[in-house]
Design a protein that fits this description.
Helix content is about 75%, strand content about 15%. With about 170 residues, it is an alpha+beta fold. Keywords: Coiled coil, Membrane, Transmembrane, Transmembrane helix.
Length: about 170
Amino acid sequence: MLNTTRSTQRASTSHSLKITRTAVCRRSTAGLGLGGRRVALTAGAAADTALAIVGSLGIVGGTLFAALYVLERQSKEGLQRKIEQLQETIRERDQQLRNAAEQLDRAKEYGRENDMFRTRYADASRDILKLERALELKDGQLESFMVVAQRQIAYLESQVRELQKAGE
């Protein structure tokens, strides 16, 4: 008679994997008195089952490692590009900040110069007003002098004429 038995073992990976191994054992039942049925699992069948489980786990582990490596590399490349973009943005902003600081320094310097020129302008305006008044006085005095000079010239001309008439 044929005695057949099934031995079932499960391996746990990303999903349950059922591996079934059938071991067939042919023995004569004469003298055993067990009715001809006997469960037999040989050491070779157990080793084959263990080897199949380990192989499956190795394949799954390798695939998982490769997938994780690819994902990590893709995300790393994307993050590296993002880092480079952010560093470039930082460089641009730093340059803008330096330019703004230079403009601020120039504006402060112009403000100081403006204050200096404002006081000089106020002083110059006062001096101009004083000079205009003095000029008006001088103009007045000049006009007075001119009037006096014209009178004197007219008087001297009249005396010259009288002397010319008297000497004629």
